[in-house]
Design brief:
The complex is a heterodimer of chains A (115) and B (114). Helices cover 0% and strands 50% of the residues of chain A. Chain A is built from no helices and eleven strands. Chain A is globular. With 115 residues, chain A is mostly beta strands. By secondary structure, chain B is mainly beta. Chain B contains no helices and eleven strands. In chain B, strands 2, 4, 5, 9, 10 and 11 form a six-stranded mixed β-sheet that branches. Chain B has a five-stranded antiparallel β-sheet with strand order 1-3-8-7-6, with no helix packed on it. The chains are: A mainly beta (115), B mainly beta (114). Chains A and B meet through strand 9 and strand 10 of A and strand 4 and strand 5 of B.
Chain lengths: 115, 114
């Protein structure tokens, strides 16, 4: 049973052409996270939503935006992808942000290629 | 220096061998995760622990809070265990009390040969 779903699994976009990655969850979790993972590196948190509250990490480039229209869906928008934005983008969810009882659940990721 | 260090970075084993992957961290934590990522794939959570030891099938995870150290053991390893194993910690001190944000290690690439 899929719990955190990411579409598409593979995305190819052209340099400078806006692209949107999608994440949905069936867990009814309050928190949704977007991570960027480049080859052989640890995942890097870009931002998260706690319900409708958006929280950007300090070093996330302005080129990256996010939308959460409802509890189930969260989108990652890359306004003008550069070659350096090619990476695996991981979506994760957790029930809460400030309790250590709750795990993060990860989606399968979307691998973005920029040509 | 990374706040979460893993060793070894790369590990090759023969099928059936007992495998240990180590994780050391330098921050106060509320919990530690062991995660698995197959090449080109998403992340699967194996364990979340804050004390003692957990076992799931052939996998065992231990943590020593005083020493700020955790180990992941794989018994009777199999080629399907080949993956990157990632240690990640939750550190409320790094995130203003937000205990569910993770700090990741750089992973251990495990290859189990038949």
């Amino acid at each position: 049973d899929a719990m955190v779903i990411q579409n598409p699994r593979y995305q190819v976009t052209q340099f400078g052409k806006p692209v949107t990655l999608s994440c949905s969850q069936t867990l009814n979790h309050n928190v949704m996270y977007w991570y960027q993972q480049k080859s052989s590196q640890a995942p890097k948190l870009l931002f998260h939503y706690y319900d409708k509250d958006f929280n950007n990490e300090a070093d996330t480039p302005d080129n990256f935006q996010s939308r959460r229209p409802n509890t189930s869906f969260c989108f990652l928008d890359i306004r003008s992808p550069g070659l350096g934005d090619a990476a695996m983008y991981l979506c994760a969810t957790s029930r809460d942000l400030r309790s250590s009882h709750y795990e993060q659940y990860f989606g399968p990721g979307t691998r973005l290629t920029v040509t | 220096k990374n706040e979460v260090e893993q060793s070894p970075q790369n590990l090759t084993a023969q099928e059936g061998e007992f495998i240990t992957i180590n994780c050391s961290y330098s921050v106060g934590i509320s919990a530690l995760h062991w995660l698995q990522q197959h090449p080109g794939g998403g992340i699967v959570s194996l364990f979340m622990l804050s004390s003692g030891k957990k076992k799931h099938g052939r996998l065992i995870a231990t943590i020593n809070i005083q020493e700020k150290h955790s180990s992941l053991h794989i018994t009777a390893s199999h080629p399907r265990d080949s993956a990157v194993y990632i240690c990640a910690v939750r550190s409320p001190t790094n995130y203003g009390g937000a205990t569910n944000k993770l700090i990741f290690g750089t992973g251990t690439l495990l290859a189990v040969q038949p």
